[in-house]
Amino acid sequence: MSSDLLWEVDGAGVGRLTLNRPDAANAITPDMRNEIIDTLALASADLAVRVVVIGSNGKHFCTGADLRAAQPAGPARPDGAPERAVGDIARTIRNGAQRLISSVLDCEKPVVAAVGGTAAGIGAHLALACDIVVASADARFIEVFVRRGITPDGGGAWLLPRLVGVARAKELLLLGDDLPAADAERIGLITRCVPANEFTACVEDYAGRLATGPTRAISLAKWLVNRSLDTDRTGAFDDEAWAQELASRTEDFNEGVAAFVERRDVQFKGW
Fold this sequence. Notes:
Elements (H helix, E strand, L loop, with lengths): L4 E5 L4 E6 L10 H16 L5 E6 L31 H8 L1 H9 L5 E5 L3 E2 L1 H7 L3 E5 L3 E3 L13 H9 L1 H10 L2 E3 H6 L5 E3 L4 H13 L3 H14 L4 H15 L3 H12 L9
Parallel strand pairs: 2-3, 3-4, 4-6, 5-7, 6-9
Antiparallel strand pairs: 1-2, 7-8
Helix pairs in contact: 1-3, 2-3, 5-6, 9-10
């Protein structure tokens, strides 16, 4: 892993994924994007990881994709072919920004965003794709795409209506105004906005509680909620029944029942 992205797992099962390009406002390069995708896939499979926290070093959370970064070279083009052909941009979005956001949504562990500064463009969507979003009071969320004359990518037009409704989503996407963290919490875009001096403690509280929870049950609950937004009642109820079936086969389920019967504190293992 490059120095632009840091990853560590502590003894409590908290995996910390830190964007580490403070001099570039933590803008995401193609290499960083791919490393984030790979790291979240590994976290899904690692039983030692109970929760993932995505944070950053420096004053910004992430100001979007680094448009100055070198892009991976594609196949050689025939003589006379245009520098950019129809389909090139769509393929770049599918293989880049959309894969990044999907890696967060599909991670089998709960993911907490620790937004300590500006989150713009794909940086905002990276945060909003997380299951819990904690922002410092001085943070901002910016749908910057319209300022550049482009349409939102990284799932923005899919995420926002599901978080705040169609009217608010259009306001954010069509105007591109800065949204202070307090307003983001007020409209339901994020989980919590806290004063700067309480920010770290709030993130750690969420991470600690999730790390000691029944990891597989939490993963299934995340899966159910994400799927519910795109299915009908029959499908959602069927998913719910099978999720309960799967959760009931875990050791944590047995521990939860035993702790209740024995009137003692529960000790979940994560499997």
